Amino acid sequence: MQWLTNIPSAADIETAHEAIGPHIHRTPVLTCRAIDALSGAALYFKCENFQKIGAFKMRGASSAALRLSKEQLKRGLATHSSGNHAQAVALSAKQLGVPAHIVMPEGAPVIKRAATAGYGANIYTCANTLEARESTLEEVVEKTGAAFIHPYNDYNVIAGQATCAKELLEDVEGLSALIAPVGGGGLISGTALSAKYFAPGIPVYGAEPERVNDAFRSLQAGSIQANSRIDTIADGLRTNLGDKTFGIMQAELKQILTVSEEEIVSAMRLIWERMKIIIEPSCAVPLAALLRYPEPFQGKRVGIILTGGNVDVEQLPF
């Protein structure tokens, strides 16, 4: 696959999907009549909690890694991440037989750090700031020569994340809308591109916590706005947007819907209790948004991406 330096095309996404096929699971789509009744819509949940490493991040990491040359791969893969992307890069490196160098901040979820180590990655701990992550990563890359796979602001990663919505659109006919959570914007950007190419006219909504609503504010302002706080239970959505993801979101996204911490916990518990599956808090944000803002979705067939299931069961919010 050729390294992407422009917004992925339909052909780029199809190429990525074929390439990563042996490295990922094609995850199931589940439904729940009880939640349909509460929402007033027919909901189709794309369950990336059943993905390898327990999250959609495996798609983007595999996509980017497989676009590297053999010479680049020999020196290994590197990234900074507090959790799911760290695991994805670590497992991608293991599958390809190369080293992984992962910078993780202090306070990263224990379950995600342990899983990253379990895939054989070299872990470097830094302070819990973006500046510390980036400076530590620079040192690691300079020392090792490993290829940096950005958690989200990379067209090669976005092409991989787009395959999730591509599968959902293939597996469920007649969807009227798609909803996915927004962190750095890799998944929502890929989702919007797949909708544009493979189901033109379907609106795509992003969902994010009110406490870290940088995407909502950025689209309103017309420029990237940073978060001033990160105290949300949805630990996977604390990241700020990148220029590549923001550009796609500006052009292709219908709307960003924001929800409270209480609504996130309530939606998470609802999925655990009614669907009998484990999801992490970030995954519950789209359902929380649909329940808070039901009007656009009434009577429609709606696809929701459940992004992962790496939750610390020792620290449940209910």
From TrEMBL:
Gene3D superfamilies xref list: 3.40.50.1100
One Pfam family it belongs to: PALP
Keyword Acetylation: no
PANTHER family, A to Z: SERINE / THREONINE RACEMASE FAMILY MEMBER (PTHR43050), SERINE RACEMASE (PTHR43050:SF1)
Keywords of the record: Lyase, Pyridoxal phosphate
CDD domains registered for this protein in UniProt: Thr-dehyd
One record GO biological process: D-serine biosynthetic process
Secretion signal span: none
Protein name: Threonine/serine dehydratase
Family: Belongs to the serine/threonine dehydratase family.
Co-factor(s): pyridoxal 5'-phosphate
Ranges of residues in domain Tryptophan synthase beta chain-like PALP: 22-308
GO MF annotation list: ATP binding; L-serine ammonia-lyase activity; magnesium ion binding; pyridoxal phosphate binding; serine racemase activity; threonine racemase activity
Keyword Lyase among record annotations: yes
